[in-house]
Write a structure and sequence with these properties.
538 residues, alpha/beta, 4 domains, two-stranded antiparallel sheet, 18 helices, 9 strands, 9% strand, elongated
Length: 538
C-alpha cells in the first residue's frame, strides 16, 4: 500500500495513558531523557538509575559520617574545635571526608527530588505503586531533618541561625511547657546534653532512612540497588574532585550573645528557612503551610485520577484482574519470577493435588502487565480471556487466509507493539491488525513487550512468519520495568525462558524505540520487512 494511500486509512484513536495534568511535564521529561540517551546511551543514562544512585550517595554519607564521629567532641566549645581539627589539621584526609559527607548529602537531596519528579510525570506513583510514593515522600522530611541536625553539630554561626529558626517553629507545638527558644537564649544555656541528643538523632535517623528505603522497594521485584560501574565511578570521582577543589568549611564559631549577619548556607537543606522568611511565614504559619503542602504532595496518588477511558483500546489484551486456574497450576515459580511487582506468590496447596504449592495473585500489587500470562508454560495464568494458548491461537490466525477469501494477503511478519511505547494514532489500520504504511506486517498491540516470551516467538516462526518484531519502550524507560527484569535475569550464555533476546535468530528484531521518533520507527519496520522479502535475514 503506497504511503499516500495509507494516510487515508481510518485508525482508532489511541487512548491517553498519562493523566492530563501530567502530560506537559511528561513530554518535557521524555525530551530530556532522550537528550541524555543521545549523550550517555539508553543503557547508561543516569536518569534511569536515580534510585540506585541514591543508595550510592547514602553509603558515601554513612561511611564518611562514621569517620567524622570518631573525632567529634560534644559541647559548645569542643564541638567547634573538633570539627576544625578534622577540617584543617587533617586537611588531606579528614577535611576530604567532611567534604564528601557534605556533598554526598547534598547529592542525596538533589537526586531524590529529581527522582520523585521523574516518577510523578511518568505516572508511576498511583494505584499499585502508592506504597513506593508514600514511603518516598516520607524519606524527604526525614532526610531534611538529618541534614539540619548535621548542621547543628559544628556549632558555628550557621548552626546558630538554624537552631533559632527551628526552635521558633517547634515552640508553636504543644509539646513543652517552656518555649524552645530558651535553649538558645545565651551561650551557657547550650549544654553538652543538647549536643548529645542532637548527635544521637543524627546517628539514629539513618536507620530510619534505611527502613523507609526497604519499604520503598518492598513491592518491587529485583530492584536495582547499585548503579553500573560506568556511572558509579564518575560520581565518586566527581565527589572527590569537588571535595578537593571546594572543601566544606565552618563559619565563625557560634556566639548567642551577638546577632549574626549574612552567613553562607546550604540551599538544599536550609533554603526552606529563607523561603519562609521571604514569604513572611514564621512559627505556626510556617508549620501549617509547610504541613499542608506536604500532605497534598503525599496524597497525590489519590488526587490524580485516571484519564477518561475510551470505549475501546488498541491493545488486544484487556488489562483486568489476573486469574490462576488451579486445575492447570503445577505450583512452579515461573509466574512469580516473571512478575515485576511481587503480585504473584506461591502458597501452600489448598486443593489437595499432588503439588506442594500453588500460585496466588495479590490484586492490590498487580499491574496487569501480562508478564505472567506467557511465562506460565501450562496456560494456568490468564488475564481476561487471554492465556498462553490464546496468544498462540491469535498468532496462528494472523498467518491464515481470511475466511471467505476477501483478497487480503497473509502478512510477511508480525510486530508485537507495546501500547505505551509511542503514540499509535494513525500508525495502524482501522482494525489495528496491520501497520498502515506497511500492510505486510501483522500487528498485535499488547500492554508491554514483557509478555512476549521466546516460546511465543518460536510459535510465530512455526505458523509461517518470516520475521518477528518486538517493539517496546526505550531502554530502562518501560512503565512495567521490563528492562530491569532483563538486567537481572539475563544469563551469561544469553538464554532465558522469559527473555526474547535469548533467541539467536536473525528473523527476530527487537526495537526499543523513542516516542519522539515515530517516522524512524516506520522506517525501521519497512527496512526489516524489505530484508525479509529479499531473504537477507534467512
Amino acid at each position: 500500500m503506497p504511503k499516500e494511500v495509507a494516510k487515508a486509512v481510518k485508525a482508532k484513536k489511541a487512548p491517553k495513558y498519562i493523566p492530563w495534568p501530567l502530560r506537559p511535564g511528561n513530554y518535557g521529561l521524555v525530551y530530556i531523557q532522550e537528550k541524555f540517551n543521545w549523550i550517555f546511551t539508553p543503557q547508561l543514562n543516569p536518569l534511569y538509575f536515580l534510585g540506585s544512585i541514591t543508595f550510592l550517595l547514602l553509603w558515601v554519607a554513612l561511611f564518611s559520617g562514621v569517620y567524622l564521629f570518631l573525632f567529634y567532641e560534644m559541647g559548645a566549645t569542643g564541638a567547634y574545635e573538633s570539627v576544625q581539627y578534622i577540617t584543617e589539621d587533617q586537611k588531606y584526609y579528614g577535611g576530604i571526608m567532611r567534604s564528601l559527607h557534605r556533598y554526598s548529602s547534598d547529592g542525596l537531596m538533589i537526586v531524590i527530588v529529581i527522582h520523585m519528579a521523574q516518577v510523578f510525570f511518568s505516572d508511576r506513583f498511583r494505584k499499585y505503586r502508592w506504597v513506593a510514593w508514600v514511603s518516598g515522600a516520607a524519606i524527604i522530611p526525614v532526610l531534611w531533618f538529618e541534614g539540619v541536625t548535621g548542621y547543628f553539630l559544628p556549632w558555628d554561626q550557621v548552626a546558630q541561625v538554624t537552631s533559632i529558626a527551628i526552635s521558633e517553629i517547634i515552640s508553636t507545638l504543644p509539646i513543652s511547657a517552656e518555649p524552645m527558644e530558651r535553649l538558645f537564649a545565651h551561650n551557657d544555656a547550650v549544654t553538652p546534653l543538647l549536643f548529645f541528643i542532637m548527635n544521637y538523632l543524627h546517628m539514629a535517623v539513618p536507620m530510619l532512612l534505611l527502613i523507609l528505603a526497604w519499604i520503598h522497594c518492598m513491592r518491587i521485584s529485583m530492584p536495582l540497588i547499585n548503579p553500573p560501574k560506568q556511572i558509579m565511578y564518575p560520581i565518586l570521582l566527581s565527589l572527590l574532585t569537588l571535595a578537593i577543589i571546594k572543601p566544606a568549611v565552618s563559619a565563625a564559631p557560634a556566639d548567642l550573645g551577638n546577632l549574626v549577619g549574612d552567613v553562607p548556607i546550604d540551599w538544599f537543606f536550609l533554603g526552606v528557612f529563607v523561603v519562609f522568611e521571604k514569604l513572611g511565614l514564621a512559627g505556626g504559619h510556617a508549620l501549617f503551610w509547610g504541613g499542608a503542602i506536604y500532605a497534598v504532595f503525599t496524597l497525590l496518588p489519590w488526587i490524580i485520577k485516571d484519564p477518561k477511558k475510551h470505549e475501546d483500546t488498541l491493545s488486544m489484551i484487556p488489562q483486568v484482574d489476573v486469574l490462576v486456574d488451579l486445575q492447570k497450576c503445577k505450583g512452579c515459580p515461573l509466574c512469580q519470577q516473571a512478575c515485576p511487582f511481587e503480585a504473584m506468590i506461591l502458597v501452600n496447596r489448598k486443593d489437595g493435588k499432588n503439588y506442594d504449592t500453588q500460585a496466588e495473585v495479590i490484586p492490590a500489587h498487580c499491574a496487569q502487565c501480562g508478564f505472567c500470562v506467557n511465562a506460565c508454560e501450562f496456560g494456568a495464568v490468564s488475564m481476561g480471556n487471554w492465556n498462553k494458548g490464546t496468544f498462540h491461537d491469535f498468532v496462528t490466525k494472523v498467518f491464515q487466509p481470511a475466511p471467505g477469501g476477501n483478497g487480503e494477503s497473509i502478512p510477511t511478519s508480525i510486530a508485537f507493539i507495546c501500547e505505551r511505547s509511542f503514540n499509535l494514532d494513525g500508525f495502524l489500520t482501522d482494525d489495528c491488525m496491520r501497520v498502515a504504511t506497511t500492510p505486510d506486517v501483522g500487528v498485535m498491540v499488547i500492554p508491554c513487550i514483557g509478555s512476549v516470551s521466546p516460546s511465543l516467538v518460536e510459535h510465530c516462526f512455526e505458523v509461517g512468519a518470516k520475521g518477528v518484531m518486538v517493539i517496546g519502550c526505550r531502554g530502562l524507560d518501560c512503565h512495567y520495568r521490563e528492562e530491569r527484569r532483563r538486567l537481572h535475569l539475563a544469563k551469561e550464555d544469553g538464554s532465558h525462558k522469559f527473555l526474547v533476546e535469548s533467541i539467536n535468530d536473525n528473523r527476530l528484531r527487537i526495537m526499543l524505540v523513542s516516542p519522539l521518533q515515530i517516522e524512524k520507527i516506520r522506517q525501521e519496520i519497512d527496512e526489516f520487512n524489505d530484508e525479509l522479502k529479499k531473504g537477507v535475514t534467512a
